[in-house]
Structures are given as structure tokens and as C-alpha cells.
Amino acid sequence: MPPPVASVDGPSGRIDARPRQAQERWMLRQRPLFAALSSSVLAALGACSDDSGAAPPGAPDDAGITSRADGGVEGPDLDAAPKPTACPRAPKPDDHARKVVVSHPFLESGKAKTFEVLELSAEGVLSKTGQTFEMRPAYSDIVFTPDGKVGFVAQDDSTIGVFSFDDAGKVKVVHEAFTGKFSSGKLVVSKDGQTLWVLDPNVEKNGGGVHRMRIGCDGSLTEEGLVITGGTAHAMELLPGDPERAVLVGYKAGDSPAGSYIHRLDLAQSPPKRLASGAVFDDEEAIASSVAITNDGKFALVTDNGFQKGSRMAPVALSDMSKRATIATPNPGAVVMSPWGNAMLLLNSDGEDALRVVKYDAANDATPFTVGAEIVTKGGKTEIPSNPKLIDRGKLKGRVLVAEVLAVRQLAFADDGTITDLGLKLDFPDGSTNIVGSLGIEP
Hints:
By secondary structure, this protein is mainly beta. The chain contains three helices and 34 strands. It has helices at residues 18-29, 31-47, 76-79; strands at 8-9, 15-16, 66-67, 73-74, 98-106, 111-120, 126-134, 138-144, 150-155, 160-165, 171-178, 187-189, 195-200, 209-215, 221-228, 233-239, 242-250, 262-266, 273-278, 288-293, 299-304, 312-317, 322-323, 327-328, 332-337, 343-348, 354-360, 369-374, 386-390, 399-404, 407-413, 419-421, 426-427, 439-441.
């Protein structure tokens, strides 16, 4: 349920705008869920129409594209275009000042296109740079190439916004709104920085699935097509230690069996190949908000923040894709794994706002995850936390940035599995124009 809208006394006797802003943030957090429900309605309407132009499985359509049984697609459009020269995307040194980008997607009345550039020093101090730029309203994760030069975000109108930084740290918009035969949901950048995987949450009939984009040297995108068919692609994570493999959460991936919701993929093949699939929950009503993989590659933890069920998460053993007992937790917005591999940070959001530790015990095959108590926060209780971003190397290893309604909060994993609020929250002034939507940080 959305947070209450009653006003409360703010600082210095003012009327605090936070309740309305919290409700706006709750609404923007539901965008992927509304998209998924809209897809189901469109699919039902489409089933009543005569789709005489669709090609049967195994036969090429009018453009020469053929859907394969294993979820891949073949055709001239995927390989005919000349492939740009690959650009090296070497990571920066472990300890460097990192650019942090947030969106401010609201006006006092309506939506805004504003993005703001912050900077996190090598010592962990987050500050404003004064740089802003415009693309389209956005609320989801911002992801970067490994060198931190190019950033990507799925935007409210289903386009992809792309920006880049030059050597002096100045920002440039590459694509204000890149469009194609997709509706952008979550985005994943390949480990080598040459490919952008675009998850489309629509049903199969409406183009849902996993699309592949080639990233140019200047950050520009070239669409390479739908490479994993099936639709309802809700979340995806690269496998730690084997970034050519991935875990996809969605109700279908090519010829995956009925009832499956999680799939292991081989991304090294072209098109990618489905390796195995399994169930996550005992129903087909989940809309995954995130998936996190343990560092040892044993388990994936899927969070469901959907309308029909929601407020739950479940582990899946990746060796045989067998699910474990479902864990109840209110409105899980996201989980992120500790770089030390023994804990996760859980974000409870959408009116149930809390930050919690999830302990991981690799030796306990039946119950590998245990949800702990709420983390004690500094500078006020967390407000609709979202988009956690982890630093996994250098002096700031274990640092996590979390977007809130009017702030970016900093927490830190310790090597013993505990998580601490560092009290380094960067607050933005009251007002709808300062609400934080998207968040991303250079690797």
C-alpha cells in the first residue's frame, strides 16, 4: 500500500512536503508492476485478434527473423550490420573519485528530465559537483561500462538514456531517448563493456524478452535484436566469476518448461542459450524486483514485490535449479550481496521502509538465508529506499549507496557480515523537484 499522505510538521514549523513526495516515490516504484499488468491486458486483447502476419515457430517472418525453440532468434538483421571495432573498457584504479548520477524525475506538477552528477571521493565523501543534464524521466538503476565512461538508464517512456564522461569529467548526452523494438525495463552491462542487455517485461506477443545492444566507442547503441524470446523478463544478474553466464528471472525463456521462473543462460553463445530452468514460488503471480547471486555461485535470491502476492523472497540452488522455502518479508525492493560473500543487504520499501541484514550460510543447504533485525540508521529513518549500489574493491570495498526520497544514504558491509549506517547521508532540499529517482555509480 502507498504511504499515508497526511502532512506533518516539518523543520522550522514548515509543512513538510515529504508525505506527498513519499507517495510519488511509491507510485514511481510501481512502474514495472503496472507495465507487467498492462502487458497481460494487451496479450489478452491480442489473443482475440487475427495475427495472420505472425510466422509459425521455426519459420522466418517478413523480415527473415526465425524464432528458435531454445529461445534464440536467427536472421539477417542480427548479423548483417557491420560490427564496430570493440573498445577496451579497462576499470579505473581501485581508489579513485567516482561519479555518482541521480535523476530528479518530478516537477512541482508533472515530470522532469533532470539528472544530477555527484562525486564520491576516494575517502568516501559524497558531494555535489554542480553538473546537471537532461534526458527523460527515469526511476530505475543507472548502469555503467566497466571504465565508468558511459552510463545507461531505462526511462519512463520505455526508451534508454545514454550519457558519457570525458577525461575531464564533463558529462555529455549520447542518446536522450534511444528507441527500438523494445520497451526497456532493467539493464545489464556485459563484463567487457561491449554489450548492453535490455530486459523487456512485456509478454512474448508484445516483444518481451531479452534484447541485445552493441555499445560503440562513443557510447552510442546499435540494436541487435531480441535474443531471448518468451517475454516477462523481470531481472537478470551476471554470474560472479563467470560473467559469460547469467541468471534471468522471467516466466519464459524460449522452450523453458511450464512453471519455471528462473533460468541459467550462456551469454557467450550467439544468440545466448538457455542452460537450465526452475521454479521460484508455488504460483505464477510474482513480479521480481531483483535477483542477487551468492559469490560462491551456489544460490540466487529472488525478491517479489508484485501486486498479487509480493512481500516474499525465495532462494534457488543454481546447481539443479531447485527452490528452497519462501521467506516472508514486507515489500522487498532489492537485495545486494556483500563482497565478502556472507551477507546481503535487503531493502524493504513502499511504506514498509527498512534496511535489513540477510545472513548467508553456505553450509546450510535447506535454509541458506536468514533475515536479521532492522539496521539502525543515522540522520533519520530510511524513506522508500531503492537502487542500492555496491563498491566491491579498494578502500571503499563494501560501501553501498542507497537512494531515498530526498537523500542518498551510505552504508558499509564488514567482513564479518554486519552492515553499518555510516552517517554520511547526502540530503537534498525539500520539494518535488529534488526527489531522487534513479541512482548509479562508476565501478
